[in-house]
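[audit] Reproducing an earlier prediction to check determinism. Same input, same settings, fresh worker. If the tokens differ from the archived copy the diff job will pick it up downstream; this log only records the rerun itself.
[audit] input (253 residues):
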Amino acid sequence: MAPPTPQIVRVIDLETTGNAPPAHGVCEIGWQDVALQPDGRWELEGEGGSILVNPGRAIPPITQAIHHILDEQVADAPWWHDVARRVLDPYPRRLALAAHRADFEQQFCTPNLTHGAEWICTWKCALRLWPDSPSFSNQVLRYWRKPQGLDHDRGLPIHRAFPDAYVTAFHLRDQLNEASLAQLLDWSRTPGLIPRVRYGPDRGKEWRELDHDTLMAFLTDRDPDIRFTANHEMDRRRGGGNVGRASAQELLL
């Protein structure tokens, strides 16, 4: 008998005309699967791929300067709704979708297109698992971590849908091998837990180094990740929770 087809988390990356649908549209989608192996480990599976998409509007020059996709390259491409479901919902194998800063992809990959899939945000999970990283962008993590097996050229050029999905898949693989799927999903449902202060006179400090009044000022910050982190640190000082590296108990959730 053939071995059962493994379950997967599908990593998604989008290139778009801008940041705010419906004013902006998708012009490319890329994907790479990460599969659960019989031994309980996670590994990349398959070749992945990408599809150009007609966004239904001109691509602004400022956006073309990032991903270098031209209007003429997508003029005859399929529409987003003709592409999205078959890429986003590889039933019945898919356990979840994933993306680096998944809040962005979720604006375009709506629940009706994903069949209500849950999402893993590899950026939020990196904040928890690898708080010592000098930055948490997809590419900085790539060069700081140097994931085993990552083909340098296959992960280029950056800001194209498949290479970015391919690089993110290595971060996801390693995160799934360090923490449970349930834990990554749980972290992804909340704002990001920022390991160090991002700006101001205390920039670069760990949150536990701040005095009470300084920490209080961050509780009303406009950035939801900063507010969440400041509240988390306040809870820690009252006797619960950690800011920064995940505890062993958290990883087993």
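[audit] rerun output stored. Observation attached for the diff report: The chain has two domains: 8-188, 207-251.
[audit] end
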